[in-house]
């Protein structure tokens, strides 16, 4: 039996799909590209925008055309938000909700057991009931893995559907995260990115803390570099920063969502910080982790263009704030109105054409800031983890502070760390 996978959306979805893949492979199914005629297709969906919903529906219909007799299994955030809408699409066999992710492999195999498997087969690594958090990790080209330690969110920001799609904040125990990291290390992976919906909220409901998790993971042998994929500014505490700066495997690279750079919009959207707090936290990290001869800290910042109430004046204030912050990169997203959220019915909705124009201005700023960040690191010694071959015959890898470096292809360097001068 052949099974193919399609994943839309965030790194969490990719980590979860990779975990499904391992479960099906261990059960004896052949993993094939989705363009091939598979017997089962598993589609992990996204619902962050209406475009994401439309893409998810399109992928379901596409694989049904490839093989009308195939079973189509659908999970992910769109499946959680619109299960009946998905069930109505021709070819869909089963929709798994957010609290059923640990059942995807065993129930799929159980449903088609007569055709697929011996009746007494046990499914390795899969729970037999729904789990508070579906443990997951994905590896990428032998060099980097994404380890999911947390899911869900309690913030209920006024533009966001995540708490509805992924549920309330919850975490896996530190001991389970360490076991997963040890499995990753056994595969020869050198770098791990910690992922979650609201990663810094880790452990709030279990009596463990995010710092405890970081310290435990830092001690895992075989993993040489750790990164934190995304963390809210109010959750990356000075205690965490001080510990990272004390000499750990955690890299000078932070992804911190801002969403909008004025206090007026931050308050109206229910964000839990002000611009001055945000700037202060960035400044503190600079002060603790940078110095003569040290690499500059990479800050990636999420910004949403065209949130309700964002006037041209407020947008210009945001641009000025970002110029002041000097992040290394801005992840720019146009605001997408999500039905059922408070922001969807707020006054001051921004026309799509204006959103697109603001996205372009933010992306232009991001390009300038990224070029300036690279120039500020010229002459600094850093280690690069070499990855895969590029189309032009070179290979590339990332420094600890996330600058992409290129060199002539050398297969012996894949998955290895070497020191270079930027």
Explain what this protein looks like in three dimensions:
It contains 14 helices and 18 strands. It is an alpha/beta fold and 422 residues long. A hairpin with a 3-residue loop joins strand 6 and strand 7. About 4% of the residues have low confidence. It is globular, with a radius of gyration of 22 Å. It has four domains: 115 residues, Rossmann fold (3-Layer(aba) Sandwich); 99 residues, 2-Layer Sandwich (Transcription Regulator spoIIAA), CATH 3.30.750; 121 residues, Transcription Regulator spoIIAA; 41 residues. Helix 8 packs parallel to helix 9 and helix 10 runs parallel beside helix 12. The strands form four sheets. A seven-stranded mixed beta sheet has the order 6-7-10-11-12-13-14.
Outline of the structure:
The protein is of the alpha/beta class and 422 residues long.
Strand content: 15-25%
> How much helicity do the residues have?
25-40%
Biggest sheet: strand arrangement: 6-7-10-11-12-13-14
- Give a count of the beta strands, DSSP E runs of length 2 or more: 18
Our count of domains comes out at: 4
| Helix-strand makeup class | alpha/beta
List the helices and strands and how they pair.
Layout: E1 2-7, H1 11-26, E2 30-31, E3 40-45, H2 50-66, E4 71-76, H3 77-81, H4 83-87, E5 92-95, H5 104-111, H6 113-116, E6 136-140, E7 144-148, E8 150-151, H7 162-166, E9 170-171, H8 174-186, E10 191-195, H9 210-218, E11 225-228, H10 238-245, E12 250-259, H11 263-268, H12 275-289, E13 298-305, H13 312-325, E14 329-334, H14 352-376, E15 381-389, E16 394-399, E17 404-408, E18 417-421
Parallel strand pairs: 1-2, 1-3, 3-4, 4-5, 7-10, 10-11, 11-12, 12-13, 13-14
Antiparallel strand pairs: 6-7, 8-9, 15-16, 15-18, 16-17
């Amino acid at each position: 039996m052949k099974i193919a996978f399609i994943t839309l959306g965030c790194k969490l979805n990719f980590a979860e799909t990779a975990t499904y893949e391992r479960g099906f492979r261990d059960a004896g199914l052949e993993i094939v590209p989705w363009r091939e005629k598979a017997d089962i297709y598993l589609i992990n969906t996204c619902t962050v925008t209406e475009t994401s919903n439309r893409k998810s529906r399109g992928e379901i219909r596409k694989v049904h055309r490839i093989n009308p007799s195939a079973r189509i299994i659908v999970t992910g955030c769109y499946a959680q938000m619109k299960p009946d809408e998905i069930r109505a699409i021709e070819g869909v066999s089963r929709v798994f909700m957010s609290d059923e992710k640990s059942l995807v492999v065993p129930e799929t195999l159980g449903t088609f057991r007569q055709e697929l498997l011996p009746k007494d087969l046990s499914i390795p690594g899969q729970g037999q009931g729904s789990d508070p958090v579906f443990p997951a990790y994905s590896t990428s080209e032998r060099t980097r893995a994404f380890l999911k330690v947390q899911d869900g969110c309690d913030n209920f920001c006024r533009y966001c559907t995540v708490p509805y799609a992924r549920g309330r904040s919850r975490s896996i125990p530190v001991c389970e995260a360490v076991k997963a990291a040890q499995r990753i290390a056994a595969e020869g992976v050198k770098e791990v990115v910690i992922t979650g919906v609201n990663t810094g909220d880790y452990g709030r409901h279990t009596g463990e803390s995010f710092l405890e998790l970081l310290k435990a993971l830092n001690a895992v042998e075989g993993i040489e570099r750790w990164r934190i994929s995304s963390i809210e500014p109010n959750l990356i505490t000075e205690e965490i920063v001080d510990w990272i700066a004390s000499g750990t495997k955690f890299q000078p690279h932070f992804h911190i969502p801002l969403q909008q750079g004025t206090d007026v919009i931050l308050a109206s959207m229910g964000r839990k910080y002000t611009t001055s707090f945000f700037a202060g936290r960035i400044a503190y990290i600079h002060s603790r982790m940078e110095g003569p001869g040290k690499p500059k800290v990479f800050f990636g910042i999420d910004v949403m263009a065209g949130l309700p109430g964002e006037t041209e004046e407020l947008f210009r204030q945001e641009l000025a704030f970002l110029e002041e912050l000097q992040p290394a990169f801005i992840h720019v997203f146009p605001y997408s109105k999500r039905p059922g959220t408070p922001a969807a019915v707020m006054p001051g909705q921004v026309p799509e054409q204006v959103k697109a124009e603001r996205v372009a201005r933010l992306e232009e700023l991001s390009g300038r800031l990224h070029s300036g960040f690279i120039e500020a690191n010229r002459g600094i010694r850093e280690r690069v983890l070499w990855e895969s071959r590029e189309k032009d015959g070179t290979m590339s890898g990332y420094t600890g502070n996330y600058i992409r470096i290129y060199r002539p292809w050398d297969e012996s360097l894949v998955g290895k760390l070497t020191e270079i001068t930027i």
